[in-house]
Amino acid sequence: MENVTTSVSGLDDVDLELLEYIEDDFDVNLEELSNRLGLSKSAIHYRLNKLRDKGIIEGVSADLHPMAFGLNMMMISDISVTHESGYADEIGSRLSDIDGVQQVYYTMGDVDFVVLSRAQNRTQMNQLIDQMVDIEGVNETSSRFVMKELKTDRKTLGNMSAEMREAIIEADD
């Protein structure tokens, strides 16, 4: 995953509106986008290509519901490690390679990593924890098990406030 430290410049209200539509449903066709945004299909196509070139649109994927595969157990694990040169990249990579791990975050504070993982049963959860503990440099883990998922929306624009969206547009002024 690439580190991004600044927002991309050159976006306008139409870009944000276009991105919000495709973030909600990438299968929407150019004709429908053209009608919604009041732009020609070629203008929509041009904007989409520009947004891909800038790295704003990273790819096209299907959102698969984990419950459909029996992955109804979610675990949030805090991982504390020994601090040696390069530990963040090395241990982060090893945590990321564990099957069932969906997200890994290197953090500052009381813990070094936060790991989100899914499994179908307790045996698989125990195996996930065992694999985390077996990584050289991992000192301690503390895991919580999600009882009910209240919000799992991974949308970027769809979850931004009007103030946040305006800051993107104003960054170019």
Task: Name the features.
alpha+beta; 4-stranded antiparallel β-sheet; 6 helices; 173 residues; Arc Repressor Mutant, subunit A; 2 domains; 37% helix; Alpha-Beta Plaits; 4 strands
Polypeptide structure, described:
There is one protein chain. The model has no long low-confidence stretch (mean pLDDT 88). The chain has 173 residues and is α+β, with helices and mostly antiparallel strands. The chain is built from six helices and four strands, in the order H-H-H-E-H-E-E-H-E-H. It is 37% helix and 17% strand. It folds into two domains: 13-62, Arc Repressor Mutant, subunit A; 66-145, Alpha-Beta Plaits. Strands 2-3-1-4 form a four-stranded antiparallel beta sheet, with helices on one face. The protein has helices spanning 13-24, 30-37, 41-53, 87-96, 122-133, 162-170, and strands spanning 73-81, 101-106, 113-119, 138-145.
